[in-house]
Specification:
The structure holds two protein chains of two kinds. Chain A is about 45% helix and about 15% strand. Chain A is built from 19 helices and ten strands. In chain A, strands 1, 2, 3, 4, 9 and 10 form a six-stranded mixed β-sheet that branches. The longest helix of chain A is centred in the N-terminal third of the chain and has 21 residues. Chain A is globular and about 65 Å long. Chain A starts with a helix and ends in an 8-residue tail after the last helix. By secondary structure, chain B is an alpha/beta fold. Helix content of chain B is about 45%, strand content about 20%. Chain B has 21 helices and 29 strands. In chain B, strands 12, 13, 14, 15, 16, 17 and 18 form a seven-stranded mixed β-sheet that branches. Chain B has a six-stranded antiparallel β-sheet with strand order 3-2-1-6-5-4. In chain B, helix 14 links the parallel strand 20 and strand 21. In chain B, helix 1 packs antiparallel against helix 8, helix 8 runs antiparallel to helix 9 and helix 8 crosses helix 14. Classes of the chains: A alpha/beta, B alpha/beta. At the A-B interface, helix 1, helix 2, helix 3, strand 2 and helix 4 of A face helix 1, strand 4 and helix 8 of B. Chain B: Keywords: Kinase, Membrane, Phosphoprotein, Transferase, Transmembrane, Transmembrane helix, Two-component regulatory system. Chain B: Its EC number is 2.7.13.3. Chain B: This is Circadian input-output histidine kinase CikA. Chain B: InterPro entries: CheY-like_superfamily (IPR011006), HATPase_C_sf (IPR036890), HATPase_dom (IPR003594), His_kinase_dom (IPR005467), HisK_dim/P_dom (IPR003661), HisK_dim/P_sf (IPR036097), Sig_transdc_His_kin-like_C (IPR004358), Sig_transdc_resp-reg_receiver (IPR001789).
């Protein structure tokens, strides 16, 4: 058989293979692509996570929490399925979590993982949540808690760690980076710089360079701008903490520096409170959508508000039409710079009585990595609890923030009532309802509703 | 068809069959897929029935509780809260299910449960004030239908549950007042999920979700992220708001299925249906698309067998094809060899006959040129005639070989119609005369004088037909008719109608088919004494074919035949041919006798031929040109002279012993040490078969001249290749006009005649016989035109005197009379000369 015939035959076989393989439908190709993707993903993941158990281990886990929607966790669960495909982890939102989590843990279908928040600790109602929590720092579990930032790592008095911080949060402001770039300005670090920048922005036509929700809530103007400064005051002098928690009027003096700074802010004209009240109806959705209008250089808010930005980019017609870059910065309330409240948003506990305790711990072991916690935080657009801020550039400004101006959630133990007094005082200052002296003098009896 | 085309066609056919099979399989797969989806939809509606029935049953049980409690109230013995809850505690069978009774009339949404709080076995209180599940329900009047809530957290045990509601009236034991309350049958969602376990048998990865009007889940499929199905759909299936609203509307109102992308961008199918009997609840069944398509009912085994079978068939066909190809190659090689043998034979025959013919005809030409002995000239003329006949036979064979090889071409040129007819008539007239046949001409005077076509082939066709007619006619005559009509569709063309009628032997009808067959001769036995190859008519027909015409034959055996054909020719000049006789005579006069055209005493040529006689012939033919001619009898001798002397032209024979012409020219081309690098080399060969010209040109020759040598072609070639500086044209003697003496008494008539004839003739006039006689004493006259009334002349040859009443004749008649006279003279002279 000569070479030409061999070539023709070879071409025939190849073409037939091509025809038949093409005809075999897309299903196979898709399956192959899926497999390849999975293999690649597995290879990548394998570098960081090495499963303890057989891949075909069957399991069913439940996670309960306060978020009605927890897609970032569901994405993480999907990645966990790549290692353990024969199982199911279901996230469930519990109605009235505060009152139902306890019965749930004691009920017929106790969750394997549940959400706790720092304020629950010490409250008798929630004692079972901590009593029934697995000790995650148990070396046998091989959970890499070293990846957690020390400021949000919650060690109990005995040094044990019962909770895994999932998201951190803070207070500060969203900054429209495109405006700053257009105007040739730097994002201010100190209060003086803030006033200067605001002046320049006003001259450039921005009526209220700084905006925010005029509410008594945590994302509100007064709280987001000045509470970190107040918390720093308490951190620096823990002796005043008891008086504040006991709502002693004399303890109100501790609020003076931060409230005066807040008063300065209002007086400086950096913020048009009336405009804020008129244009921002609530402390979450309106804040985001108003910011996305694109004409607000700085928007005071909390990290929780920032978490809602990603989804609302598509919902905002203005942002869709004219997208811009934005980042989160600590509000520059101090003379040396702003104060970074490194707070925990939510934490996970493992039910030590879980019928699937091994796989529950395996899931937590999988989750406890810079990558997974970082991805989850990035998807939720909350602050990662790990040391690596790089996965979400919105929070990049928080990396390497000076320790001296950082206040973490364990640095103060202010009770909710004391915090509410401060929020009410700040709201009154912002709205001119009280002077700083009046607010300080009325500490403990400032109306909070 | 080439082998590779057959292979490609085979592959295409196999590919097509495979394509059809795969297409068919795919179509079946698509149908199967559609069927799978239809089954999936059917499963969904079945599931919907099960779920709806279950929910109705649960609602019914709730209604029984309510009816019993309300019945007591209506009977005037209302139950207290404790009694009511105690009743429910007894009535409910499953420990998983609990009953909650809450007051709604004071908005407290608090009450009592059949089951204790999981965290405190003594606490039966229940409070729904922070559980927002009633907002879409008219809780003050929920009677009469299935009323259930979304999945919510049972505040007493934290279990995800659904609640079935009905209104009751109970007695407040403290105030003794009737209170409006809500009885809630709290059923864990897991119980409903258990009803759907059966689906796992049929579809491994199916996930059932129940959603409310807003898309919030009651039951949540594992893969459906988000807490709201519509938001989930929107997140992973980007589309316009209008499209999104349409999808939502479809799910809310229709029963069906659609493809969606899940959070991993995988293709999935959801089937949806409203829950019958329930307001604003929908069942959504989710399944990865691949699970449905995996159920394709394609028989891959059969497909594989067909593919393998086709491949084997293809392979087998290729083997057979290869085998046939081998045999065909052998046959083709044999045919090629036979063809080569034929070509070789023709070439050899041509060469071997033409070589001596060259000597015969060439030497005879010398005799004709040099001899003055009439008898020798007559013998010599016979030799030339016989030689030309023999050459004609050879040319016919060679022509036919060219036609067969497809190498005969029609070369159209402008030609003079009179000249063409003259040549034909000259050629045939003599043959007819020899056989004492009457050769009649019927030439249409309106034929345009100058036409455009292949003169040579037309002449050959007509000559062949006429020659045949003469050959096969023993007595009687041959009539050659030609006329023309204008082509109506093409005004620049005329249609020549040529007809040759003879009174010959005729052709039987059954023999008509043989007429145009090569080498076939009709009535071979009867006509064996007639010369011919049997090619003449075949060649004529072939030429006419090439010119778009064909020969028509009408024949009556024993009485004669008529051969005719029509030929379309382009007209160059519409000037009519006129009377052919006078045109013919005019042409004869215009025709020049052969005389040497040029001399080139400074030109030097080299002739190479192994045949000494041919060298002599060549030299003699060019003797009068005074060209310096060197000869060489071999290739080597040629090369020696080639290197030594400069030549203007070299004539090189092909077939020579030792080193033939092609080998010689190859060495000549490679030779750099020669003054003849640019000298044209002409192949002088007796090999005149088809394709030889191209072969010689390809071999490096500049031109090609066949033997026997045609003197005029040879001279033309020399004029082409020798530098014009070296050529001197020979001045021809001025044409001598015939002298005419006109004798008439009418001086006016004489003047008129003189004017008429003086352009063509040297005319002298005399107005009396005496004057004419005196004139003739001192002058010669070739013709004397004399009025018949005058006295006879004493001088002048009588056969040169025409006496007539010329005044009564027209000018044309007079000129025609004179032209006829001189034509006969010329003819006589020519015959004498020949």
């Amino acid at each position: 058989m000569n070479k030409q015939i061999k070539t023709i035959l070879a071409m025939t076989f190849i073409s037939m293979l091509a025809i038949t393989s093409a005809g075999c439908g897309q299903t196979q190709n898709q399956s192959l692509e899926q497999s390849e993707t999975q293999v690649n993903q597995q290879e990548n993941s394998t570098n960081q996570f090495s499963p303890k158990y057989e891949a075909d281990t069957e399991y069913k886990l439940s996670v309960v929490g306060t978020y009605s929607n927890f897609e970032s966790l569901e994405s993480t669960i999907d990645r966990f399925y790549e290692h353990y495909p024969n199982g199911e982890i279901e996230y469930t939102y519990l109605d009235d979590y505060r009152n139902t989590i306890g019965p749930a843990l004691a009920g017929q279908e106790p969750p394997d993982i549940y959400v706790v928040q720092p304020w629950m600790y010490g409250d008798e109602q929630f004692a079972s949540l901590f009593d029934g929590a697995e000790i995650l720092s148990d070396p046998e579990l091989e959970i890499n808690l070293d990846c957690i930032r020390s400021s949000v790592k919650w060690e109990m008095d005995d040094g044990e760690i019962l909770t895994l911080p999932v998201f951190a949060t803070s207070y500060g402001m969203l900054v429209n980076m495109d405006i700053f770039e257009t105007e040739g300005l730097e994002v201010p670090n100190t209060f003086e710089e803030l006033k200067d920048v605001c002046q320049q922005l006003k001259e450039a036509g921005y009526e209220s360079p700084l905006m925010g929700a005029n509410t008594t809530t945590t994302p509100g103007i007064g709280y987001a701008f000045s509470y970190p400064m107040f918390a720093k005051t308490v951190k620096d002098d823990r002796s005043i903490e008891e008086g504040l928690n006991n709502l002693e009027p004399s303890a109100g003096e501790a609020m003076r520096p931060s409230l005066e700074r807040l008063q300065d802010l209002v007086d400086s004209g950096c913020i048009d409170v009336a405009k804020c009240s008129a244009e921002i109806e609530d402390d979450y959705n309106s804040v985001i959508l108003r910011f996305f209008e694109g004409d607000v250089p700085m928007m005071l808010c909390s990290g929780d508000v920032v978490s809602g930005t990603k989804k609302r980019e598509g919902q905002s017609e203005a942002f869709s039409a004219n997208p811009f870059n934005y980042d989160f910065y600590v509000a520059p309330s101090g003379d040396e710079g702003g104060y970074y409240m490194d707070s925990v948003s939510i934490l996970f506990c493992v039910n030590k009585n879980s019928v699937n305790l091994d796989m529950t711990n395996e899931f937590i072991r999988f989750l406890t990595s810079e990558k997974e916690l970082g991805l989850m935080a990035a998807e939720k657009r909350l602050i990662t609890p790990t040391t690596d801020y790089s996965l979400d550039e919105v929070y990049a400004s928080l990396a390497d923030f000076p320790e001296a101006r950082t206040v973490n959630f364990r640095d103060t133990e202010l009770l909710d009532t004391a915090v509410k007094q401060y929020r009410a005082a700040a709201y009154a200052i912002v709205n001119g309802e009280m002077t700083v002296d009046e607010a300080v003098a009325n500490y403990g009896s400032i109306p909070t509703e | 068809m080439k082998k590779r085309y057959i292979v490609i066609i085979n592959i295409l056919i196999v590919g097509l069959i495979l394509f059809i099979i795969v297409k068919y399989a795919n179509d079946r797969a698509v149908e199967s897929n559609q069927s799978s989806i239809a089954s999936f939809e059917k499963m969904t509606t079945t599931t919907e029935q099960i779920v709806a029935n279950y929910l109705e049953d649960e609602q019914h049980l709730c209604d029984i509780w309510a009816n019993y409690i309300n019945g007591s109230a209506e009977a005037g013995t209302p139950m207290t809260v404790d009694e009511a809850i105690s009743y429910i505690r007894k009535a409910k069978i499953s420990p998983e299910i609990s009953g909650h009774l809450i007051y709604i009339d004071d908005g407290s949404m608090a009450g009592i449960s059949t089951n204790a709080r999981s965290t405190d076995p003594s606490d039966y209180s229940v409070n729904y004030s922070h559980i927002n599940i009633f907002e879409n329900l008219e809780i003050s009047n929920v009677d009469g239908a299935v009323n259930l809530t979304r999945a919510y957290t049972n505040p007493l045990n934290g279990v995800q549950s659904i609640a079935f509601l009905n209104n009751i009236k109970v007695l407040d034991s403290e105030t003794e007042e009737m209170r409006d309350a809500l009885i809630i049958r709290v059923v864990p969602v897991s119980r409903l999920e258990q009803k759907l376990v059966f689906l796992k048998g049929e579809y491994e990865n199916v996930e059932i979700s129940l959603i409310d009007w807003d898309g919030d889940y009651m039951i949540h499929g594992k893969s459906l992220k988000n807490s709201n199905f519509f938001e989930y759909f929107k997140s992973y299936n980007p589309m316009s708001a209008q499209e999104y609203n349409q999808v939502v509307e479809t799910i809310r109102t229709d029963i069906g299925s659609m493809h969606i992308h899940n959070s991993k961008d995988e293709d999935c199918v959801i089937a949806y249906t409203p829950l019958s009997g329930l307001d604003s609840w929908f069942l959504v069944a989710y399944i990865p698309a691949y699970e449905l398509t995996l159920n394709r009912s394609i028989d891959w085994l059969i497909l594989g067998i067909v593919v393998a079978g086709l491949l084997i068939l293809l392979h087998f066909n290729l083997m057979i094809l290869l085998n046939f190809n081998r045999k065909l190659t052998v046959a083709a090689e044999a045919a090629n060899q036979a063809n080569e043998a034929k070509s070789y034979f023709l070439s050899t025959m041509s060469h071997d006959i033409r070589t001596p013919m060259n000597a015969i005809i060439g030497m005879n030409e010398m005799i004709l040129r040099d001899s003055h002995d009439d008898e020798i000239l007559m013998y010599s003329e016979n030799i030339r005639a016989a030689g030309n006949t023999l050459l004609g036979i050879i040319n016919d064979i060679l022509d036919f070989s060219k036609i067969e090889a497809g190498k005969m071409e029609i070369i159209n040129v402008d030609y003079n119609c009179a000249s063409l007819l003259n040549d034909i008539v000259n050629m045939v007239q003599r043959k007819a005369d020899e056989k004492n046949l009457i050769f009649k001409l019927d030439v249409d005077p309106n034929i345009p004088r100058c036409l455009h076509g292949d003169e040579i082939r037309i002449k050959q066709v007509i000559t062949n037909i006429l020659s045949n007619a003469v050959k096969y006619t023993k007595e009687g005559g041959v009539t050659f008719s030609i006329n023309s009509t204008k082509c109506e569709d093409n005004p620049d063309y005329v249609m020549l109608h040529v007809s040759v009628e003879d009174t010959g032997i005729g052709i039987k009808k059954e023999d008509l088919d043989k007429l145009f067959a090569a080498f076939e001769r009709i009535d071979e036995k009867k006509n064996r004494n007639i010369e011919g190859t049997g090619l003449g008519m075949a060649i004529a027909q072939s030429f006419l074919d090439m010119m778009g015409s064909s020969i028509q034959v009408e024949s009556e055996y024993g009485r004669g035949s008529v051969f005719s054909f029509d030929l379309k020719q382009k007209v160059v000049k519409w000037e009519p041919l006129g009377e052919f006789d006078s045109a013919y005579k005019s042409f004869l006069k215009e025709r020049e006798q052969y005389k040497v055209r040029f001399v080139a005493p400074d030109a030097r040529i080299l002739v190479v031929d192994d045949n000494e006689i041919n060298l002599k012939v060549f030299g003699n033919l060019l003797r009068e040109t005074k060209i310096q001619i060197d000869t060489a009898e071999s290739g080597d001798a040629c090369l020696t002279l080639f290197k030594r002397n400069f030549y203007d032209v070299i004539f090189l024979d092909h077939m020579m012993p030792d080193k033939d012409g092609i080998e010689t020219i190859k060495e000549m081309k490679e030779c750099t040490d020669t003054p003849n690098a640019k000298t044209p080399v002409i192949c002088l060969t007796a090999n005149a078969v088809s394709g030889m010209r191209e072969m010689y040109i390809n071999a490096g020759f500049d031109d090609y001249l066949t033997k026997p040598i045609d003197t005029s072609r040879l001279e033309n070639m020399l004029c082409t290749y020798i530098s014009s500086d070296l050529i001197k044209q020979v001045d021809r003697e001025p044409e001598q006009k015939y002298k005419i003496l006109l004798v008439d008494e009418d001086i006016q008539f004489l003047r008129k005649l003189m004017e008429l004839l003086s352009n063509k003739y040297e005319v002298a006039v005399s107005k009396s016989t005496a004057q004419a006689t005196a004139y003739l004493k001192s002058h010669e006259a070739d013709l004397i035109i004399m009025d018949d009334k005058l006295d006879n002349l004493a001088e002048g040859e009588p056969d040169k005197i025409i006496r007539d009443s010329f005044k009564e004749k027209s000018e044309t008649e007079i000129t025609s009379l004179i032209d006829d006279f001189f034509a006969k003279v010329a003819d006589k002279e020519r015959r004498e000369h020949e």
